[in-house]
Amino acid sequence: MSSVKLSGTATLGDRQVYRLGYGAMQLAGPGVFGPPKDPQTAIRVLQEAVESGVNHIDTSDFYGPHVTNQLIRQALHPYSADLCIVTKVSARRDDKG
What we know:
Number of helices: 3
Strand order of the largest sheet: 3-4-5
Order of helices and strands: HEEEHEHE
Helix content: 25-40%
Organism: Klebsiella michiganensis
InterPro entries: Aldo-Keto_reductase (IPR050791), NAD(P)_OxRdtase_dom_sf (IPR036812), NADP_OxRdtase_dom (IPR023210)
Number of strands: 5
Protein name: Oxidoreductase
Largest sheet: 3 strands, parallel
GO molecular function: oxidoreductase activity
GO cellular component, one term: cytoplasm
């Protein structure tokens, strides 16, 4: 049995997800800005996470910006019915951080 399944489940809205998910922030470039150095590796990481049993991915349109959401789409679309992609909204940064 995979570590993901051993982590147990939690209820997220009306879905049951494994407690061990994947945080997509580090898929973007350095400092969470821009594309990764190797987009194909990022895509493989996402695919392998899901293949290992991960059924929820935490992302934000702010990462990149837009980069991680595009990578998730490229790697995993069409999405399986049990995959839960959660995101944050309204993240903004100005020149002061």
